[in-house]
Amino acid sequence: MTDMLLEVEKLEARYGISQVLHGVELGVGRSEVVSLLGRNGMGKTTTIHSVMGVVSAFSGSIRFDGDEIRGWPSYRIARLGIGLVPEGRQIFPNLNVRENLVATAGDFGREARWDMDAVLDMFPELTARLPIMGNLLSGGEQQMLAIGRALMTNPRLLVLDEATEGLAPLIREKIWRCLHRIKQSGQSILIVDKNLKDLLKIADRHYILEKGVTVWSGDSDALRANRQDLDRYLGV
Ligand SMILES: Nc1ncnc2c1ncn2[C@@H]1O[C@H](COP(=O)(O)OP(=O)(O)O)[C@@H](O)[C@H]1O
Ligand SMILES: [Mg+2]
Asked: What digits encode the pLDDT tens for the residues 210-236?
């Protein structure tokens, strides 16, 4: 038995004839926060989409809580307890905030820690916006809604793909504070983000992707200690 919740091994995926993932290794333990790092175009979103079953990886292994889920349809993977905050937020523009939150909500037989009250307690800004259509929200409100919507599925693993991208600094700080609170509740989290300083504070461990291959992994102390060698992979 392993206490890893998500274990990805030797993952390979392609779009048409163009292979993008050539051997991704990644693991997230229970109550662990893990970051997936790498410059633009290195395969972070494709890795996440493979885990979610949106992209069908043709080789390798994706185990979630012991189940081999590579090849499973994405609705089954979502029900298993992986909640995605997708790149670009992707909230439903023609549903209001309340409808966005309840559209995919559920506990799927798990302990229900997140409901409307808990999400509004985390993001009080959304309370007055409940009847407002998704497309009329500010970028920051849309991002809070996207996170709230993922939490409403009571995920066993929360996955965030560039959740602070394009936000004003104050809103970005607010999102990081909320993520720290979510972490403290014991939530397992996988984060893709460009803000290394914030990731070093919140993540227990990090993986670096270079052209679809995991080239390094380690904890925050190891990443700090190896910054000079690793900067070429991080584009900073
Ligand atoms: N839908 C797609 N069709 C074809 N190629 C894609 C598609 N999505 C991404 N790619 C290519 O796959 C590579 C990895 O992209 P992506 O996983 O989005 O990287 P990252 O999230 O690390 O920026 C890039 O070269 C990108 O151009
Ligand atoms: Mg991406």
From this structure: 999 999 999 999 999 999 999 999 986
Mutate to test the pocket of ligand 1, among 19, 35, 45, 55 (most ligand atoms within 8 A of CB): 45
Decide: 208 and 215 in contact? Cβ < 8 Å.
yes
Residue 27's DSSP bridge partners are 7
Residue whose CA is closest, atom 1 of ligand 1? 15
pTM over 0.90: yes
- What is the crossing angle of helices 139-151 and 169-184, to 10°? 10
CA 109 / ligand 1 centre spacing (Å): 35
For the chain, which residues make up each domain, given as ranges?
4-234
> HSE on the CB side for 10, CA within 13 Å?
4
pLDDT 10s digits, 128-178: 999 999 999 999 999 999 999 999 999 999 999 999 999 999 999 999 999
Assigned CATH for 4-234: 3.40.50.300
